[in-house]
Backbone:
């Protein structure tokens, strides 16, 4: 899979399943089909277990104090949220049947090895794992394209992770701007940072968007995003650890439609008359006779003017033909043409 080539066509839109299957394989499969029908190019899952992510410990270091998951213990949260590994090959097959790509975020070496075993074609690196350079290098060593989120990361941390990937000879990298808050605040997206990453690294960039609504995603595409990632659920009434900040199918479908419309509006560099403008060219200004003018009569500011519509000579000729004489009778309202004028040297 040559991800960079693919991204040249249009923005690549990823539906993040995350915990929104709610522990149901049936719902996970339904989500994959719904994502495809909503316009997603790819469904993304996460490959971890509570034990590969953390340890079962109840001291204060493992308690979440603020935000969407306030009051949760890390281990218990991951127990609720993880996607069973025995599902994942089947989910990959389901994605193929639904006509969309399948992507996963590994969180340790064992999950990378597992994903290699089921034939994963490319990887996502989460914002929180960007600083795990040994893991980043191990993922890069597999030679697959990588999409890496950069939430919370300083430029120095991003550069360290990018160089770690490049040192493994892996040059197929996409960087995503990300605000690692759930939900994120649109006012603090700072999408110019995404553009700056593109300038620094000369690679495709995009947005991992945890905000509500689609304004951030559409704006990102207008600013050059090649990838959009958005959490996806069948309905926010199905409560899961991620449902409160996820998009429902109709919302996702509208977002995709808005993104595609934005891409068409961006278009390409074009000057001159567009197809949609052809009929309106006649409403430009041009030179007209505004009084009846006899043959041989001088053309003056009193009998010719630059007015709408645009059937006569272009306004730039007005100074040139003032003082010339009419080669024929011109009725008021006649568009003036060069063959209607006797031209004399001034």
Residues:
């Amino acid at each position: 899979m040559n991800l960079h080539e693919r991204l040249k066509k249009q923005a690549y839109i990823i539906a993040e399943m995350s915990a929104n299957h709610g522990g149901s394989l049936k719902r996970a499969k339904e989500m994959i089909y719904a994502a495809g029908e909503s316009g997603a190019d790819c469904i993304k899952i996460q490959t971890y277990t509570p034990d590969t992510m953390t340890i079962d410990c109840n001291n204060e270091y493992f308690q979440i104090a603020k935000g969407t998951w306030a009051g949760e213990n890390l281990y218990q949260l991951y127990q609720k949220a993880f996607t069973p590994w025995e599902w994942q090959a089947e989910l990959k097959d389901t994605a193929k049947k639904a006509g969309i790509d399948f992507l996963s975020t590994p969180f340790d070496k064992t999950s990378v090895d597992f994903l290699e075993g089921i034939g994963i074609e490319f990887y996502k690196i989460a914002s929180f794992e960007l600083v795990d350079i040994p893991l980043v290098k191990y993922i890069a060593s597999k030679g697959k394209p990588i999409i890496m989120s950069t939430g919370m990361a300083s430029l120095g941390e991003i550069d360290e992770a990018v160089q770690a990937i490049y040192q493994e000879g892996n040059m197929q990298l996409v960087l995503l701007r990300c605000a690692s808050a759930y939900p994120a605040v649109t006012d603090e997206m700072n999408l110019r940072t995404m553009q700056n990453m593109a300038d620094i690294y000369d690679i495709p960039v995009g947005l991992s968007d945890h905000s509500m609504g689609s304004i951030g995603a559409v704006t990102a595409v207008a600013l050059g995003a090649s990838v959009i990632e958005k959490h996806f659920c069948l309905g926010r009434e199905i409560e899961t650890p991620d449902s409160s900040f996820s998009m429902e199918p109709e919302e996702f479908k509208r977002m995709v439609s808005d993104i595609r419309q934005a891409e068409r509006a961006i278009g390409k560099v074009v000057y001159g008359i567009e197809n949609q403008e052809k009929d309106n060219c006649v409403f430009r200004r041009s030179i007209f006779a505004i009084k009846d003018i006899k043959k041989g009569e001088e053309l003056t500011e009193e009998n010719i003017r630059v007015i709408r519509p645009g059937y006569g000579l272009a306004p730039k000729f007005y100074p040139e033909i003032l003082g010339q004489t009419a080669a024929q009778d011109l009725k008021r309202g006649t568009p003036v043409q060069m063959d209607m004028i006797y031209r004399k040297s001034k």
Summary: The chain has two domains: 3-266, 275-342. The longest helix spans residues 249-266. The mean pLDDT is 94.
